[in-house]
Amino acid sequence: MKYEVNKKARAFLSFLIKFVLLPAVVVAGALIFRSKNYSYVIFAVTVLSLTLFFCGVDKKRTGTRRLVLSAVAVAAASLGRVLFSFIPGVNPVTAITVLFAIYLGSEAGFMIGAFSALVSNMFAGQGVWTPFQMFAWGMIGMFAGLFSSYFENHTVRLCVYTFFAGIAYSFIMDIWTVLWANNAFSFKMYLASIISAAPYTAIYAVSNVIFTFLLAKPFSEKLGRIKIKYGI
After folding, report:
1. Helix or strand or coil: residue 56?
2. Prediction pTM value
3. What's the rounded Cα separation, in Å, for the pair 191 and 213?
4. For 212, what's the count of Cα atoms within 13 Å in the CB-facing half-sphere?
């Protein structure tokens, strides 16, 4: 009975963090803290991401293994982003985040996406945009984990998802662009931002498909074996 109560409490907290606290912190941070204090917003998103991860942990041993694999995913995604930084709009962060999220779960998927933005920006450059990148890649990982049974071992479905995830990522970042430039949301400015960023969005969406197609089979084979062997 106590376990069921704790499970429901963790599920409620997970929902609250994903759909209320994180969006509120990211948007409020862009409007209130501005450039001088963006580190506070990054810290808040980091803490919420970790809290969300541990909401999905049922057993200590399993949670530790998921945490280690999540760290590996963050390192791989961050390294991939740095290696491809010379090509605008091309990086494997979405593909790696999605592939790991399918086997590690939605909470781990969010943390992988969020931390990949945070860690890779240590090389690419931190800024007021970082919390939005953390949120955007985190949500991409989260939804991949939520619908893992639909995507697992289906490369075409994964490619379609990562294509539209690339578009969604750009749309979320366009919200930051408008809030930062206008200090309030304007649909006209948002539409203009989407149109002006269309070439970048297209390149990123297509590159996601390429990375997913190349990585899906080897990642699925290895992560599938790890999932079965260690009961993750």
Report:
1. coil
2. 0.93
3. 31
4. 30
Reading the chain (232 residues) residue by residue, the pLDDT tens digits are: 544 557 788 889 999 999 999 999 999 888 887 666 788 899 999 999 999 998 887 665 667 888 999 999 999 999 999 999 999 999 999 999 999 999 999 999 999 999 999 999 999 888 889 999 999 999 999 999 999 999 988 999 999 999 999 999 999 999 999 998 888 899 999 999 999 999 999 999 999 999 999 999 999 889 888 878 777 6
CATH number (1.10.10.10, 1.10.1740.10, 1.10.3720.10, 1.10.1760.20) of 2-230 reads 1.10.1760.20
The domain limits of the chain are: 2-230
| Coil, strand or helix at 89 | coil
Q: How far apart are the first and last CA of the chain?
A: 24
Scan for tokens 């002006």, then name that residue.
196
For the stretch 57-64, contacts whose Cβ atoms lie closer than 8 Å and that sit 24 or more positions apart, written own/partner, are 57/107, 58/7, 62/230, 62/231, 62/232
CA 3 to each of CA 8, 10, 38, 58, 64: distance values in angstroms, whole numbers, following the listed order:
9, 10, 38, 10, 20
Position 3: which residue type? Y
Helix intervals (H) in the chain:
2-16, 22-32, 38-55, 60-83, 93-104, 106-124, 130-146, 148-151, 155-182, 187-196, 198-230
